[in-house]
Amino acid sequence: MAEVTSHGLGPVILMGPPGAGKGTQAKRIAEHYCIPQISTGDLLRDHVCRATPLGLQAKDIMAQGGLVPDELLYGMVAERLREADCDRGFILDGFPRTAGQAGWLDEYLKQELFDKSKPGACLPIVIQIDVDYNELLSRLTGRRSCPACGRIYNVHLQPPRVDELCDVDGSKLVTRNDDREEVIRERLQAYEKLTRPVIDYYGRQGRVVAVDGGLPVDQVSELIFRELHGHGC
Ligand code: AP5
Predict the structure, then answer these.
(1) Fewer CB atoms inside 10 A, N or C side of the chain?
(2) What is the pLDDT of residues 80-131, one digit of tens each?
């Protein structure tokens, strides 16, 4: 793994179907470049956990594998992007996921981040991670994560050293509520129908770099770092 760099990276958008490895790779990029991972899934799960008005509206939709309506997300994402740690860049993991969200983000970046006085002001790079359907199913049904530090495991592919316990802090690992086969199918359908067109949209602007997400985790990271290396602001 390369060293942490001191320059800003600007916005990085990670796209790919559920289970492609967005969260896994986002954590590595965040650590390497010292910029935050912004996962709309994690932010929403936190709202659900705290039973906020947003969480109450999102809970059932998420449990069924659907997408939370666009307009419910904008305030949450804007609030997060305005935090000071985003000034040198940030990684969007799971956002945008619809044409509406992509349009909103473009407008937001134009108005707020493309203020040249901000160091993180540069065009986003979109990394598309793609993986075969059957591999996605096995990744998602085997996924476990640490409720304390967020580290992601897989009982088949990346098991913890001690069964069901986090290597880092020993917490008992948990299974996500939407990692059940019938819900996974809905999530994959939502991705094909609503999110694939977003990749096409960025593709037409020449911003997409495709990475083979079927490779082992370290190799996927290498490919991503190679692409990001020349991208800094
Ligand atoms: P979200 O939390 O974003 O879930 P997702 O997009 O379905 O993606 P996942 O987190 O399931 O997968 P990932 O690609 O991050 O894979 P991971 O690295 O964990 O969204 C959840 C829900 O929130 C949505 O369904 C929706 O309801 C709502 N939501 C969120 N954002 C929204 C938005 N913008 N608009 C509307 N609604 C929204 O890896 C998966 C497993 O594979 C792990 O076990 C990992 O260890 C393993 N693995 C990873 N990489 C590899 C590899 N290279 N080789 C082998 N195993 C690997």
Answers:
(1) N
(2) 999 999 988 999 999 999 999 999 999 998 887 655 555 455 788 999 999 9
Work out the burial of residue 220: count CB atoms within 10 Å of its CB; fewer than 13 is exposed, 13-18 middle, 19 or more buried: buried
* Cα distances (angstroms) measured from residue 214 to each of 21, 131, 139, 210: 9, 5, 11, 12
Residue 131 falls in which region: left (phi positive, over 0), alpha (psi -120 to 50) or beta: beta
**Ligand 1 binding site (Cβ under 6 Å of any ligand atom):** 16, 18-24, 39-41, 44, 61-62, 65-68, 73, 94-95, 97, 101, 139, 142-143, 152-154, 157-158, 178, 187, 213, 215-217, 220
Residue nearest atom 12 of ligand 1, based on CA coordinates: 19
205: number of Cβ within 10 Å = 11
Distance 16 CA to ligand 1 centre (A): 8
**Nearest-atom index, ligand 1, CA of 129:** 14
Phi-psi region of 12 (alpha: psi -120 to 50; beta: other; left: phi over 0): beta
Catalytic residue (one of 22, 27, 28, 45) = 22
Q: Is pTM, for the whole model, over 0.85?
A: yes
**Quick check: is 97 catalytic?**
yes
Nearest Cα to 155, choosing from 140, 136, 176, 172?
Answer: 140
